[in-house]
Amino acid sequence: MELPAHVAANRRQWDAWASDYVAAGEASWAGQPKWGLFGLPETEVGLVPASVEGLDTIELGCGTGYVSAWLARRGARPVGIDNSEQQLRTARLLQVEHGLDFPLHFGNAEATPFADDSFDLAISEYGASIWCDPYVWIPEAARILRPGGELIFLVSAVVAVLCLGDLETDTVTTTLARPQCGMHVFDWPDDDSVEFHLSHGEQLRLLRECGFEAEQLLELYAPVDATTRYTYMTAEWAAQWPVEEVWRAPTALACVTVGQRYRAKGNTDEPLRGQVRVVGRAIAAVVRAQRRTQPQREQPTRKYVRSAACWKLLPTTPQSALRCRYE
Ligand SMILES: C[S@@+](CC[C@H](N)C(=O)[O-])C[C@H]1O[C@@H](n2cnc3c(N)ncnc32)[C@H](O)[C@@H]1O
């Protein structure tokens, strides 16, 4: 099947970039879980669930596979999918080096080869979460997640996307460079890659439409003395405005999920639909009981995580050369 143009473009671009990500992949496989451009530790962020023991997990856009490696070490059964053969090559070499073996699929996270209800947790750190079309990959994640499963994904913060320069060599500023209204496709002028970013309201609407409850939106800030290898962002900026955001979205009550799937398959029979709801409610009760009995862990400190922030927006005329499609 022919790939959508943005998927083909991102494949070419990521195959070309893969060699630049080997060292970071090696360091991440060897170290503790850290997130985002400034490597905030998991003990600080609290991004993954308290226990992943025995969960079937899928990493959408797994790159070098370190997130799946962390999940494997915590007792999960991870699977990774990525659109770049070169990134997966690094992931496979690191699997051998670290003696960890889990399935890695070469493919597009917008149209995965997995059956309905295959996974308990879908996760993406700067993977499908920014390189795939959200109107395609989020419904796909909903399809392959089981009732009671959870979708967790890390993206660039909306305010950061609005203030970034057009070129990777431009450093972020405190000026809005482009409108938020209708943001969706970002076709940066200095390379062939295509990114996707939605405003908060639209992201929330889409998640709910796909059967997710948006439980948490974590805003990640950086310590002022933090460092990053990416020159387009600075710690000074990221200490004042969120550099990244993490959405934690469990699938909504199983009765909704089961009912939606039933209707999506074209079923209209009323008595049967009632039975589907009863089965769904029973599943939802089990899921809720399981959530209540999950072991508690130490609370993350969340020093650099805020759920709300105040900032003064500087009005400006958008003068961006970035080719965006606002819809
Ligand atoms: C910045 S990496 C993030 C992955 C991981 N956290 C890492 O740093 O290795 C982005 C990954 O998304 C992958 N990607 C881009 N488009 C994709 C698609 N349509 N389906 C699956 N993966 C995709 C790229 O090939 C790349 O490996």
Helical content (DSSP H or I, runs of 4+): 25-40%
Largest sheet strand order: 5-4-3-6-7-11-10-12
C-alpha termini separation = 27 Å
The largest β sheet comes out as: 8 strands, mixed
Hetero groups bound? S-adenosylmethionine
Radius of gyration: 20 Å
Morphology call: globular
CATH homologous superfamily title of the largest domain = Vaccinia Virus protein VP39
- Helix run count: 12
The fraction of residues assigned to DSSP E strands is: 15-25%
Low-confidence stretches: 308-320
Q: What is the total tally of β strands?
A: 13
**Overall pLDDT metric:** 87
Structural class: alpha/beta
* H/E element sequence: HHEEHEHEHEEHHEHEEHEHEHHEE
Q: Can you walk me through this structure?
A:
The structure is a single chain. With 327 residues, the protein is of the alpha/beta class. It has two domains: 5-252 and 301-325, Vaccinia Virus protein VP39 (Rossmann fold, 3-Layer(aba) Sandwich), CATH 3.40.50; 255-295, no CATH class. Helix content is 36%, strand content 18%. The protein is built from twelve helices and 13 strands. It has helices spanning 5-17, 22-30, 42-45, 66-73, 85-98, 128-131, 134-144, 158-163, 200-209, 235-238, 254-264, 270-293; strands at residues 34-35, 40-41, 56-60, 77-82, 104-106, 119-125, 145-156, 185-187, 195-196, 216-220, 244-250, 305-306, 323-325. Strands 5-4-3-6-7-11-10-12 form an eight-stranded mixed β-sheet. A three-stranded antiparallel β-sheet has the order 9-8-13. Strand 1 (34-35) and strand 2 (40-41) form a beta hairpin. Helix 2 (22-30) packs parallel to helix 4 (66-73), helix 2 (22-30) runs parallel beside helix 5 and helix 11 (254-264) runs antiparallel to helix 12. The two termini are 27 Å apart. Mean pLDDT is 87; it is low at 308-320. The structure holds S-adenosylmethionine. S-adenosylmethionine binds next to helix 1, strand 4 and helix 6.
